[in-house]
Amino acid sequence: MPNPLSKMVNPRYPATAVGFEKGTATMVQLQRGRGGMSSLRSAATVVLPESLIRPSFDEPNISDPAELTAALSDLATSAGLLQQKRWSVALPDATSRSLIVTLESAPASRAELEEVLTWKMERGFGTALDELSISRERLPLDPQGRDRYMVVATRTTILGEYERALHSLGWRPGLIVPRHIGEGQWLTLNGSRGDGLLLSSSEHGFTAVVFRGKQPIIVRTVNCDSEECEDELYRLLLFYRDRRGGEVEATGQLARVLVVGDLLRKDRACEIVSETLGTDLRPLNAHDLGLQLMTRELSFDAVAAPAGLATLSWQ
């Protein structure tokens, strides 16, 4: 699994990307416009049978590979992208687990670093590391001067399910990452000041990522029912306020909120941010983020993850 963060420097990624979620698949081809804007050169989405993709970290995801391959072929044909060979891929968040690992003390050697990271990852992921495809990226030091790493893991067997579906069409998947990493790219563009909060929801809960510049400083996946989402968001924001307070005062408070998915209402999420942090924000839309949608029939939520990965073609 390619490293989702380190290769953002001088990348050579395609402007075409595909995103998977339970019940849908979406393809985009992005083009860069003037004034920092981008637009969808081609895009299409298809409704899939609910049982065809069952996002999971532990269990097989694709119930009928041949049916998914046929659906992808039809989707690419409708988008005019069937002849494209190179793709970035956004997987459902439930297929992967993301951690920010902090080292309490500086390791004395490379071997000690690997030993500590292995121990922390095994605890964080809850499974043997030899079953996982793991990416990691060193982050800037935390306010106490401690080393930090962003780590993303997907079971090798599950990653292979999606790769085989794409390979069967003659496509070459390059960057394959969980959905929130694609969506989070929109908060790292254009050098925006202040922290940015991504809230990416699915049927089983939400993933929250706080970005400072291009770097994530908090990553939290919360499994909850819809009626529990607001309480869980309050808890997350209190953690951000209380544990990061001194750092926030030095660099600026939360300045942007991007809400993707249906489990959290966009306006209500910003109300909770205001109540907790005292910051009056509204949810960002496609135009705020520099994306021109070619049709009202295609929502930003549908294209956010693959289109975010496609922006890496010119970053």
Labels describing this entry:
315 residues, 30% strand, alpha/beta, disordered N terminus, six-stranded mixed sheet, four-stranded mixed sheet
Describe what you observe in this structure.
- The protein is an alpha/beta fold and 315 residues long.
- It has helices spanning 65-79, 110-125, 156-167, 179-184, 229-243, 245-251, 266-277, 300-310; strands at residues 16-21, 24-32, 38-47, 86-91, 96-102, 132-139, 148-155, 172-178, 195-202, 205-212, 215-223, 254-260, 291-292.
- The strands form 3 sheets. A 6-stranded mixed β-sheet has the order 8-4-1-2-3-13.
- β10 and β11 form a beta hairpin.
- α1 packs across α3 (156-167) and α5 (229-243) runs parallel beside α7.
- The two termini are 20 Å apart.
**Tally of strands:** 13
Class from secondary-structure proportions: alpha/beta
Assign an overall shape: globular
> What is the rounded Rg?
19 Å
| Helix and strand pattern | EEEHEEHEEHEHEEEHHEHEH
How helix-rich are the residues, as a percent range?
Answer: 25-40%
What number is the mean pLDDT?
Answer: 90
Order of the strands making up the biggest sheet: 8-4-1-2-3-13
Low-confidence stretches: 1-9
Q: Count of DSSP helices?
A: 8
